[in-house]
Amino acid sequence: MQTFTGTASYGTFAVDQASRSPSVYVAANDGFLHAFDAGSGLETYAYLPGAVITSGLKDLANPAYGDTVSHEYFNDGELTVADAYFGSAWHTVLVGSTGKGTAKSVYALDVTDPTNIQFLWERSAGDGKTNSNYIGQMTGKPVIAQTADGVWSVLMGNGYNSAAGKAALLQFGLSDGTLDVHQTTDTTGLAAPAVWIGTLANGISTVAYAGDADGNVWSFTLNTGSTTATATPSSSGVKLFTATDSSNNAQPITAGMSIGKDPQSGNVWIFFGTGKYLSRDDLADMSTQTWYGLIVSSTDSTNHPAVDGTTHKDRSALAQRSITSETAGDANTLPGRTVTTLTDASNITGKAGWYIDLLSPTGVDGAAVQQGERIVTPNVLNGLLIGTTRIPKAADACNPSGKGWIMAIDPFTGTNPSAVFFDLNGSGNVDTGDLINDKPAAGIGFASLPNNPIFVGSHMLVSFDNGTNTSVNTFSPPTVSALQRVSWRELISP
Questions:
Q1: Which residues, 6 or more positions from 456, have their beta carbon under 8 angstroms from its beta carbon?
Q2: Which listed residue, of 81, 113, 131, 341, carries a Cα 20 to 30 Å from 407's Cα?
Q3: Using an 8 Å Cβ cutoff, are 405 and 445 in contact?
């Protein structure tokens, strides 16, 4: 049972909020955040960040917009909605950013009552307040976390092109937007963090992990986790690892990280892929990118060391895995892939994790082929580790085309699933008809650029950059090897 400031009243808050009007919130490139009634579809609220007004928004009214007046991003960042306790009461708060837009803005709204949404704060690179020069173009999802008892924060990678010219983790006070900065020595920009709660009982997030565009993986202490639970809102980042290819070229980390604990060993892992998909030049990048799983906290440093920035700091400290086969598919069957099986895998004992180079085994005699494949969205940890890859083909950033894969592997060994997961042949069943060379598929291919899937029961829903979507049957729930709890229902009395 969790015990921190506000827990005694949360049950009452949750019951009261069960009757509020369901709402959908969408940030759009007209510059506004829009709220819609989920039942009627009618718009109920719109918010225009102040920084967007002065970032060229008037160009949208120009008849030449998109022609001689170039397209710009205005408010296309990701949104997070979460409950938090401040001001002696529980609130539901929405936090968003302007994403790739030149406004470089973050904003927070109190959406506890969707019929009476309240503005909390906005911070932008040009607001002249403390640390605003660290705010860049943030493409990752904000994280709302309790960083000390009763202290709630918004944690974000500072993104790209900040005036400070440093990769940094930004920590905003949730109620007032006060900004503290966790600096690094890198000069690119930081992607979205993964945040870990040290002790479930107190609900306090103690550490965050994030990567930068030079391939560095950083840890940031948010709270000491000691008896006194000392918060550290401006701690410096500690470099744990650098992602490089086999020729020691740095691999950019632009996707957010995922985090999870191995139920067998108790080790804490982070998962991410490398690559960029931010500018026109990135479309033609054919460099080798990689999928990583790293141990960041170990219960047995001899057999399962954690990455530490010194002895265990690069791919030499990891076990190698590979994409081992690939089928082209046909009119009835989607393309499929396998990766190194557990039987064929090198021993992970003594290693700080695993890596898989995103190379297609379709060359002569199965030689690996560079296709510019990359991972630029966060992984999903749901029994299996789900990763979405992209292989761009077009030179026009406004006309996205290409292909990609949705991969599913064992998170803590980096190996092929032991049971069938994808319905490759579209039969409606997940069975032996979906095997590749007598092995379950570890990946399913698509002829358009896929976005991260959404799992609804046994259906994997996928949208594509060309505006289409599809549904693929999967085994539900995904499992690793052992039985585990996949859901629960909590009964709360007022």
A1: none
A2: 81
A3: yes
In this prediction, residue 484 carries a pLDDT of: 44
Going across the sheet that includes 118-124, the strands are: 79-86, 89-97, 105-110, 118-124
Closest by alpha carbon to 360, among 376, 337, 377, 379? 337
| Residue 154: C-alpha distances to residues 167, 182, 233 (Å) | 17, 13, 11
The encoded tokens of residue 9 equal: 């009243």
| DSSP structure class, residue 51 | H
**Do you find a cis peptide bond into 477, omega within 30 degrees of 0?**
yes
454 pairs with which residues across the strands?
461
Buried b vs exposed e over 219-239: b needs ≥16 C-beta within 10 Å? bbbbbbbeeebebbbebebeb
Q: What is the pLDDT of residues 357-372, one digit of tens each?
A: 999 999 998 999 999 9
Count of H helices and E strands in the chain? Answer: 2, 29
The pLDDT of residue 66 is 86
pLDDT digits (tens, 9 = 90+) for 330-358: 988 999 999 999 999 999 999 999 999 99
Strands 89-97 and 105-110: antiparallel
Nearest by Cα to 37 from 28, 27, 25, 48: 25
Q: What global pTM score does this model have?
A: 0.94
A 10 A CB-CB count for 326 gives: 19
Is 470 exposed, middle or buried, given 0-12, 13-18 or 19+ CB atoms closer than 10 A? Answer: middle
341-345 contact pairs (CB < 8 A, 24+): 341/415, 341/416, 341/439, 342/410, 342/413, 342/415, 342/416, 342/418, 345/319, 345/321, 345/413, 345/414, 345/415
User: Of 385, 407, 404, which is closest to residue 478 (Cα–Cα)?
Assistant: 385
Query: Residue 189 has what pLDDT?
Result: 97
Beta strand segments in 380-431, E = 380-382, 384-392, 402-409
Which residues are CB-neighbours of 477 under 8 A, at least 6 positions away? 382, 383, 486
| The pLDDT of residue 397 | 63
H or E segment at 8?
A: helix 7-17
84 neighbors 146 (Cβ within 8 angstroms): yes
372: left (phi over 0), alpha (psi -120 to 50) or beta: left
> What size, in residues, is the chain?
494
Task: Please name the residues in contact with 140: beta carbons below 8 A apart, sequence gap of 6 or more.
Answer: 78, 156, 157, 159, 191, 192, 193, 255, 256
Determine contact, residues 259/270, Cβ cutoff 8 Å: yes
The answer to whether the CB of 273 falls within 8 A of the CB of 292 is yes
| Residue 91 to residue 374: CA distance in whole angstroms | 38
Could you tell me if residue 14 is left (phi over 0), alpha (psi between -120 and 50 degrees) or otherwise beta? alpha
Residues in the chain with pLDDT values less than 50: 478-494
- CA–CA gap between residue 276 and residue 377 (Å, rounded): 10
Task: Give the helix/strand (H/E) hosting 9.
Answer: helix 7-17
- 212 phi/psi in degrees, rounded to 5: -115, 175
